[in-house]
């Protein structure tokens, strides 16, 4: 039997998956987000103390993470949350504690950011939820192409757990993975939880 693996570049995948997401009608997006939340609720977060999260760019129909945090604040009251402010010129992020009372302001890219608060270091995160346009069957991801999460994840401790959130399933393989790319430990989709740590151990 011949198994064909489709290799695609990040540039092609980025274009295809952004279009695919933007073309989804709002009711389908709402259903996928509900299913994604259900999958997220299946994991046990009790070993984590500080979780970093992104808030969605709604114009880009990113995964809705508000509902996840809303649920987790009730289900895991000891778990604290961190949010970032982006510096697009340097492709870097600064991190702040996200309390329920934190004021959020949308930046020029439509990303809700904390107006201020207690600054945090990457080393303080033990769980990071990662945005993406697509991922592949080995846990490599494609984002908007600035490498901001690759830079951030490199600064986190090796003990950090990374979980990508995607409204779609994986592509076969990303052709142009490079040394800066940080593969994800897990990806949650509306249908499945992919655990790349486990599959590597097999
Ligand atoms: N919600 C969310 N927050 C996030 C990310 C993300 O993917 N999603 N990022 C993940 O890294 C960082 C922000 N990265 C971004 C990179 C590009 C664009 C963007 O809109 N780019 C324009 C072109 C910009 C330009 O070069 O002028 C575009 O794609 O149309 C937005 C966010 C940090 N925060
Ligand atoms: N740790 C790093 N240090 C310096 N440059 C980096 C680092 N990580 C990524 N880059 C650079 O950033 C650029 C974008 O990388 P890539 O195409 O992998 O982005 P992406 O993962 O799709 O985007 P993002 O992480 O912003 O969502 C590349 O030119 C890459 O070399």
Automatic annotation (TrEMBL):
Record SUPFAM superfamilies: NagB/RpiA/CoA transferase-like (SSF100950)
EC number(s) on file: 6.3.3.2
Top-rank EC class of the record's enzyme: ligase
Catalytic activity: (6S)-5-formyl-5,6,7,8-tetrahydrofolate + ATP = (6R)-5,10-methenyltetrahydrofolate + ADP + phosphate
Single GO MF descriptor: 5-formyltetrahydrofolate cyclo-ligase activity
Keywords, in A-Z order: ATP-binding, Ligase, Magnesium, Metal-binding, Nucleotide-binding
Binding site for ATP: 10-14, 141-149
InterPro entries xref list: FTHF_cligase (IPR002698), FTHF_cligase-like_sf (IPR024185), NagB/RpiA_transferase-like (IPR037171)
Residues bound to substrate: 55, 62
Position of the signal peptide: none
Cofactor: Mg(2+)
One Gene Ontology biological process: tetrahydrofolate interconversion
Similarity remark: Belongs to the 5-formyltetrahydrofolate cyclo-ligase family.
Protein's name in the database: 5-formyltetrahydrofolate cyclo-ligase
